Amino acid sequence: MNEISVEKLFKENQDRLQLVILNNENGFNKVIKEPELHRPGLALSGFVDVFTYNRVQIVGNTELAYLETLSSEDRYSSLRKVLDFDIPCIIVTDNNVPPQVMIEIANEKKITIFRSVYSTTHVIQLLSAYLEKKFAPFTTVHGSMVDVYGYGVLITGRSGIGKSEIALDLVERGHRLVADDVVNVIRMTENILIATGSELLKHHMEIRGIGIIDIRRIFGIRGIRQQKRIEVEVHLEDWEEGKDYDRTGLEEKASSLLDVEVPLVKLPIFPGKNVTVIIETIALNQLLKTTLGYNTAQEMNERLIRRMQDEQTDIRDYISFDLE
Amino acid sequence: MKKTVTVQNKLGIHARPAAELVKLASKFKSEIIIAKNDRKVNGKSIMGVITLVAECGSEIEITANGVDEQDAINAIIELFNNKFYEE
Q: Is A248's CB within 8 Å of B22's CB?
């Protein structure tokens, strides 16, 4: 999404930010095109050369205290100079009352002024989080997204390979479905990918042979969740005789989604293979790696290399520790 | 048929060469046995090959039984002689 209207901003934040309209709704059609916020202190003091007027303007105690120090003529010209810019909207924080002249000029320029009961810092935090999400890079992925032991697993693969069936099996085993078939992905901050379901599909899925089923109704609230960070991609492939598959896990692969690298596991499957248990194990093994820094394949290999360099140990030395 | 070969790469058969070896062995239909000092393991099993702890300089006996045993042995010996493409 590249822009949102002032009206949408108001409706979606009215409760969160405790917003009230101080003048009127004439500025509701204006659009916000940037996720950043701006405090117009310097602009009010007269420096408007690099004034980022197209951002939501946050007027706090500092700005209002400064305006208080001005004579009424100076206050008028200061506000006139700033409000002449095409500002999308203004939020006055801390339950402050802005000067009457500010509201009058804003009315004339069709700029809506809101007031929040919260402090400037709090308003900036809440609004930044909201806008960052709205302006975040966005894509959709054909796959299934499941929270497996708290680890976000994105299952991909060709149509009909059994992604939904595997997701269903995972839910049945106590894991939580985020989305099936259509996975919406947004990038938060630098490198965090968040997956959500489509608003229309909710937690429905299609299982070939049954049709459309509602996971939430069938498995209840414990079987679903609204969003989850993507932490690993499991790409399902048809098993091919003679093809090289990863045998050690030493080499770490990654796929790229919205310019973020996602650890990738390519999983060859064939009928009868218990993919669900393997995916649970992938999640747990990734947890070991990322949470405890324990890379099984690597540590095993280091142990082996040390052993080859040492004196050769006999199997009897190993057994001597265990007399059971 | 049987053949003996020496491990020539510096680090010995650690995980990466072991993976190369089992991937190559898995391409053949023949049963493949890799042995070091009378310890025998299945040449298509990575965990088996790792437990040989085959350091540089050790002697490895390769046994292949099946329709493509000659090709299998030749290919595996080539992999050893090429130091598992490590150096």
A: no
Phi/psi at A131 (5° precision) = -70, -35
Q: Indicate the residue among A118, A134, A150 that finishes a domain.
A: A134
For residue B19, the chain A residues in CB contact (below 8 A) are 246-248, 250
Q: Around A192, how many Cα atoms within 13 Å sit in the side-chain half-sphere? A: 8
| Amino acid at residue number A319 | I
* pTM score of the predicted model: 0.74
- Is residue A233 located within the same domain as residue A270? yes
State whether A288 and A143 are in the same domain: yes
Token pair belonging to A290: 């990322």
- A173 as an active site residue: the answer is no
Q: Is A84 a residue of the active site?
A: no
Q: Residue A208: its pLDDT value, please?
A: 87
Quote the ipTM score.
0.76
Range of the domain at A114: 4-134
The structural domain count of chain A equals 3
The per-residue pLDDT for A314 is 60
Of B3, B9, B11, B14, the catalytic one is: B14
